[in-house]
Amino acid sequence: MIRKNFDENSNIKAGIYIRVSTEDQAREGFSLPEQEKRLRELCEENHIEIYRIYKDAGISAKKGNKRPAFEELLQDIKDKKCNTIVALKLDRVTRSIFDWENLMDFLNKNDAYIVCANDEVDTTNANGKLLTRLLISVSQNEIERTSERTKFGMAGAIKAGHIPGVTPLGYNRVDKKLVINPIDKEVIERIFDMYSHGKSHYTIRNILNEEKCLGKTNWQDSTVRRILENPVYKGDYISNKGKKNECYYENVCPSIVSKELWDYCQEQGAKNSKNYMRKEDYYFLQKLKCPKCGRILGGKATKKKNGKSYYYYQCHDCKNHLNEIDIEKQIIDLLNNIVEYDAVVNNFFLPLLKNKINNPEKDYERELKNQQMKKERIRKAYINGSFEYEVFEEENKIVDNNIKELERKIIENKQLENLTFNEEDILVYRDLDYLNSLRYPELYDGFIKSWKKLDRISRQNIIMHYIDNIELEQHGKTIFVKNVNFRSTFLKDFNNLFSKGYLDWKIDNDLFETVRYSNYMDKEHVTNHLNKLRKYYDVSMHYGKFNQNTNILNFAFNPTHEVIRIFPIENDFSKEEVNMGILSIHETKVYTREKLEQEMYDEFMTDELLLNTPGATLDDVVEITEDGAEYRYQ
Q1: Phi/psi at 509 (5° precision)
Q2: Which of 282, 350, 458, 615 is surrounded by the most beta carbons within 10 Å?
Q3: H/E/C letters for each residue in 441-458?
Q4: pTM for the structure as a whole
């Protein structure tokens, strides 16, 4: 019930209700003091007793909002402390039709009134009630339109990169946009990398605290979890997460990790719980499923009297039991390929793409001299009887390996000076690496990038990093590897390089047994590639055809040549026969360390001749071999 007309005999005790929302602050006449002043004057003019002032500041009157002062006013009316609500306008009390209907029902039940200073309302009749409903409808419509404008403006701001909320670790905020913080970025990358390799939130937290990462020792499991679950790190943002009006925005800020890695970490959750942590380094932890029931196989290790450990995988339900070595043997060629890829792309080339090398040749040569001097000191100490022959042999072997590695790096560094360190040069490096192994087998054979050269932890990391899972099938008691499924992050990076022709992969072929194969590369890139190789080796190109129906490769090939790599020289694979190119080199001179040292000396003398002899050219420095061939130094 609403009373609009007052008389001196009416027993009215008012609760003055004033409210202001955030958007009302700047609106003239809507401030709390202005409302209170106006309503006090109204009560004085109409001889209304004021029981109390009720204030709600910064709260909207839309449906569902909690208004403490208004709730207190309604309770006082129920307790008969006052019987009239006095407000400036109807929209100060409510802007929802639903709430208004409930309020009218409440006032009728408690014989109470409502008075609005600026609205001519009277609900003692049907027309008055209709008018109040219309006024409330207009107010509700205004709220909804304002909400729509706000949402539209917010969506536009987010799409423009203005991400609301607290700035996430790994970013700074510049002009309201997120920009990557290069120092914190490395922490985020490391957290995702550790989690993708099987470490739990708990383990990562301990590592960060032990290392005092970013100067903090209060890293929590929940902090690590929130980082891993935040889509901002893959460039996306979710507004109103978990609510009915949740909205997903894609590619609205710079990403720190790839979408594939982020998605993989979400799937990895159950596997990385503390229940799955093991002391043993199983190669295929969480990668094998039982071929009968599909259950993930658990690990079991036994240690023999000789101290050697043996690793097995078993199914709790089906009692299947398989030896780790059996799986390893079946995919050993694939594992060797992955190790090579990892060594070339991740451990060598990508760091060079990020940080161009700082010409370390002088450092290598300085360290080479140090190692040679150390070798001489070991020799003299042995002669003087300082230690036994076995110790001398072991120490000497370590120094020899260091010397071989430094000599290899010096050779590579000279070749790398002519590379631009972009994606195209990955394949140049791969070819040079292969050619160097032919020319300097003494230096390169000891550093073949293969599975057997790795320790158990390195092997486990390789499998965790590149392989998602391994499908098995069973015939009787024998278990076979049916399929190896790679992780999406590896497939994306590998396919990106391989499809452009910038990376090779070993394949089996009847003509060459195992041969390196790369994808199509256009003529211009092939020419540039050959020019880079020919700075160091006399490589040749041959041509042939590959029949896609018979899988036969036909080449008119000189048997005295060594195959470096084969690749298609056309991009149309719809035909039965595809034109192929074969990159090769004539049987090359094999260099021992003594020959290498002599060549390095000769190159030094060549440089001296060119620098100190006016008018001298490379044609003045020629070696005539026994077969009459001329080798000019370059």
Answers
A1: -145, 140
A2: 282
A3: HHHHHHHCCCHHHCCHHH
A4: 0.46
Sign, CA dihedral 7-10-11-17, equals negative
Phi then psi for 433, rounded to 5 degrees? -60, -45
Tens digits of residue pLDDT in 535-555: 888 888 888 888 888 777 777
Q: Which residues pair with 543 in a beta bridge?
A: 581
Structure tokens at 301: 């290790």
Mean pLDDT of 569-591: 80
Mapped to the 3 state alphabet, what secondary structure does 592-619 carry? CHHHHHHHHHHHHHHHHHHHHCCCCCHH
Q: What is the pLDDT of residue 186?
A: 82
Residues in the chain: 634
Number of H helices, E strands in the chain: 20, 21
Angle of the 424-439 helix axis to the 389-416 helix axis, nearest 10: 140
Q: What is the overall mean pLDDT for the chain?
A: 76
Helix (H, G, I), strand (E, B) or coil at 583: strand
Phi, psi of 371 (to 5 degrees): -65, -40
Residue located via tokens 């978990």: 242
Give the pairing type, strands 467-475 and 321-323.
unpaired
Token couple for 439? 């020319």
Residue type (1 letter), 234: K
> CB pairs under 8 A, 24+ apart, for 402-408?
402/371, 403/368, 403/371, 403/372, 403/375, 404/442, 404/443, 404/446, 404/447, 404/593, 405/447, 406/364, 406/367, 406/368, 406/371, 407/368, 407/443, 407/593, 407/596, 408/436, 408/440, 408/443, 408/444, 408/447
pLDDT, tens only, 171-220: 888 888 888 887 788 889 889 888 887 788 888 999 999 888 888 888 99
Tell me which of 21, 96, 196, 518 is the catalytic residue. 21
The rounded distance, in Å, linking the Cα atoms of 171 and 254 is: 9
Say yes or no to pLDDT of 320 above 60: yes
Instruction: Kindly state the helix (H) or strand (E) to which residue 577 belongs, with its residue range.
Output: strand 577-586
pLDDT, tens digit, for every residue of 354-413? 444 445 566 677 778 888 888 888 888 888 888 788 888 888 888 888 788 777 777 766
Residue 164 has phi, psi (to 5 degrees) of: -75, 170
- The SS3 of residue 464 is helix
pLDDT in tens, 24-59: 554 544 688 888 998 999 898 888 899 999 998 877
In this structure, what DSSP letter does residue 311 have? E
Cα–Cα distance measured from residue 389 to residue 381, given in angstroms and rounded to the nearest whole number: 11
Q: What is the CA radius of gyration of the chain?
A: 39
The set of residues, in sequence order, having a beta carbon less than 8 Å from that of 262 and lying 6+ positions away, is 192, 231, 233, 234
Name the β-bridge partners of 480: 473
Q: In the annotation, is 137 catalytic?
A: no
- Which amino acid would we find at residue 457? I
The number of beta carbons lying within 10 Å of the beta carbon of residue 267 is 11
Q: Are 407 and 443 in contact (CB under 8 A)?
A: yes
CB atoms within 10 A of CB 431: 24
